[in-house]
Design a protein that fits this description.
FAD, 7-stranded mixed sheet, NADPH-cytochrome p450 Reductase, Chain A, domain 3, alpha/beta, endoplasmic reticulum, FMN binding, Elongation Factor Tu (Ef-tu), domain 3, 4 domains, membrane
Length: 681
């Protein structure tokens, strides 16, 4: 195409009044150009698909390569006799898990379902779903961040926005996964439900809204138990029997296997940790060396830490405000205890192969591998298991009372839901605790591995600027550790794993599998724009990067606007993070205001929102006259909400507005990208 572009430029062509010889030459050139363009177009037309699908020199990189839409989900459904497709938009695996459960449910009603990743198919085929008898599309859609689609649903979302397709033959239902502490609760589920109806599709059952701040599992079960009767009524079918345990994978034990073909913790390509190749992403993480790991707090029971990851030679690029994802490993003592309690040789090499040969998902995690590797790197063994896991495990309890208890907790009865909430969720019982507290429950380890969800990457706001640290990514985190109602000590998987990643004196640096995820949390385009940053606790992380960048811009001779920080911690002498760095930036004039709330250093608690109220006049002036950008990072449940309410009050008072007008003013700031959130619950 470059040749075509160059060939099309003819600055030396003579004008029409030149000689016949030149006219002739011009004609020959013209013919040559047309032939060349035609040839290139023909080559591109016939060979472009092959080019796209070729994966160079990596025979086992299938799971790492970008998904190729090589087949229509309609054709696949016809070929395999399916009539229900459950698409999932999933960031942490929960929506995928719910989709799998719904697709398995279908057999109870004489229907056949399949779970599908929208990233792998062309969703414009939805208009053809009516070609299949008793067909239905279900969408389990999680909302990520500030009302955004998950990564794997981005293309589907873009298509929905632009589509003018006629979906009048499509029957659908949507279950959304969200969190009420976030501003845009379940935005993706609501949008998909509304947009499909606008395109003419027929809703078979009402939109379900799951709330992860409450009890997402219960929300799903409640919706599901009403969803299936509605489907039965719509299609005129009846349940064929009780829910039964159907294995999705079969166990293959490898007694004589080449260990070079066994996965040892890689996320995608076999041996990718030994032979690293960019680009690095969720399925191909980079092994970064930890060059520094220091404790930030001077006292108190908690452990707050600053880590530095070396990304030299990785070609990884990041901007201030981006997130770093790390893949942690489970505590080896928990893994060993599960092995002991189930009487299993954890070093057995095995594969779990999908019984559905047509499925795109051949294994629940990379196989072949050992049980030890699966329980350490691939499976979530620390979160309370969901009800479907308890239901499947119940058959292995030899004590009738324990079996009944498990089945009750997995039921949709009010008593069962209450028992699950108290005994599993509120008591924070993980799978090991359940096995310990139910002595007769001893499932086969392969079935347990099939049922447990995948261990997910953990995301941290990057605490550095790439302008200052182009070859390093900094993390600020607090270790999670708490006692449960049963007296057990539960530890956060990632933070305790990171805590132990300390470089030794011999220069040996531990490794962390990581990749960068882009964010919308960005400094203003113009350095002269003022910024107001609010980030208590580890919410300070992205602002360390912001301040570093503003200092760098100032050094470059740029005009930098006011840089205002509102930070909070418990005690000045215990957990004032980055105290020296912040003091230096303030002294140098980069940080024009440093406002710190020490919540527990006096009788009455003082938080960041109290300091905002104290400085309300200057805050309003910066926002209203200075067009300042506001950034909030940290706890979504309380802090972010309280800060937002404080801004409503400030805007109402100084902008002479009513409460609804003030709310609208702040919402407009959000729409314009002048009020940004990076929060978690």
């Amino acid at each position: 195409l470059t040749i075509m572009g160059n060939a099309g430029v003819e600055p030396n062509i003579s004008p029409a009044e030149n000689t016949a010889q030149q006219d002739s030459l011009f004609s020959m050139t013209d013919v040559f150009l047309i032939s060349l363009i035609t040839g290139l177009f023909t080559y591109w037309f016939f060979f472009r698909k092959k080019k796209e699908e070729v994966v160079p020199d990596l025979p086992k990189i299938q799971s790492v390569a970008a998904p190729v839409r090589d087949s229509s989900f309609i054709e696949k459904m016809k070929k395999t006799g399916r009539n229900i497709v459950v698409f999932y938009g999933s960031q942490t695996g929960t929506a995928e898990e719910f989709a799998n459960r719904l697709s398995k449910d279908a057999h109870r009603y004489g229907l056949r379902g399949m779970a599908a990743d929208p990233e792998e198919y062309d969703l414009s085929d939805l208009s053809r779903l009516s070609e299949i008898d008793k067909s239905l599309a279900v969408f389990c859609m999680a909302t990520y961040g500030e009302g955004d689609p998950t990564d794997n649903a981005q293309d589907f979302y873009d298509w929905l926005q632009e589509a003018d397709a006629d979906l009048s033959g499509l029957r659908f239902a949507v279950f959304g996964l969200g969190n009420k502490t976030y501003e845009h609760f379940n935005a993706m589920g609501k949008y998909v439900d509304k947009r499909l109806e606008e395109l003419g599709a027929q809703r078979v059952f009402e939109l379900g809204l799951g709330d992860d701040d409450g009890n997402l599992e219960e929300d799903f079960i409640t919706w599901r138990e009403q969803f299936w009767p509605a489907v039965c009524e719509h299609f005129g079918v009846e349940a064929t029997g009780e829910e039964s345990s159907i294995r999705q994978y079969e166990l293959v034990v490898h007694t004589d296997v080449n260990m070079n073909k066994v996965y040892t913790g890689e996320m995608g390509r076999l041996k990718s940790y030994e032979n690293q190749k960019p680009p690095f992403d969720a399925k191909n993480p980079f092994l970064a060396q930890v060059t520094e790991n220091r404790k930030l707090n001077e006292g108190g029971e908690r452990h707050l830490m600053h880590l530095e990851l070396d990304i030299s030679n990785s070609k990884i690029r990041y901007e201030s405000g981006d997130h770093v994802a790390v893949y942690p490993a489970n505590d080896s003592s928990l893994v060993n205890q599960i092995g002991e309690i189930l009487g299993t040789d954890l070093d057995t090499i095995m594969s779990l192969n999908n019984l559905d040969e047509e499925s795109n998902k051949k294994h629940p995690f990379p196989c072949p591998t050992s049980y030890r590797t699966a329980l350490t790197y691939y499976l979530d063994i620390t979160n309370p298991p969901r009800t479907n896991v308890l239901y499947e495990l119940a058959q292995y309890a030899t004590d009738a009372g324990e079996q009944e208890r498990l089945r009750k907790m997995a039921s949709s009865a009010a008593e069962g839901k209450a028992l699950y909430l108290s005994w599993v969720v509120e008591a924070r019982r993980n799978i090991l605790a359940i096995l310990q507290d139910m002595p007769s429950l001893r499932p086969p380890i392969d079935h347990l591995c099939e049922l447990l969800p995948r261990l997910q990457a953990r995301y941290y706001s990057i605490a550095s600027s790439s302008k200052v640290h182009p070859n390093a990514i900094h993390i600020c985190a607090v270790t999670v550790e708490y006692e449960t109602k049963t007296g057990r000590l539960n530890k956060g998987v990632a933070t305790n794993w990171l805590k132990n990643k300390v470089p030794d004196e011999n220069g040996s640096n531990p490794l962390v599998p990581m990749y960068v995820r882009k964010s919308q949390f960005r400094l203003p385009f113009k350095p002269s724009t003022p910024v107001i940053m609010i980030g208590p606790g580890t919410g300070i992380a992205p602002f360390v990067g912001f301040i570093q960048e503003r200092a760098w811009l100032k050094q470059q001779g740029k005009e930098v606007g006011e840089t205002v920080l509102y930070y909070g911690c418990r005690h000045e002498r215990e957990d004032y993070l980055y105290r020296e760095e912040l003091a230096r930036f303030h002294q140098e004039g980069v940080l024009t205001q440093l406002n710190v709330a020490f919540s527990r250093d006096q009788a009455e608690k003082v938080y960041v929102q109290h300091l905002l109220k104290k400085n309300k006049e200057s805050v309003w002036k910066l926002v209203n006259e200075g067009n300042a950008h506001i950034y909030v990072c940290g706890d979504a449940r309380n802090m972010a909400r309280d800060v937002q309410n404080t801004f409503y009050e400030i805007v109402a008072e100084f902008g002479n507005m009513s409460q609804p007008q003030a709310v609208d003013y702040v919402k407009k700031l959000m729409t314009k990208g002048r009020y940004s959130l990076d929060v978690w619950s």
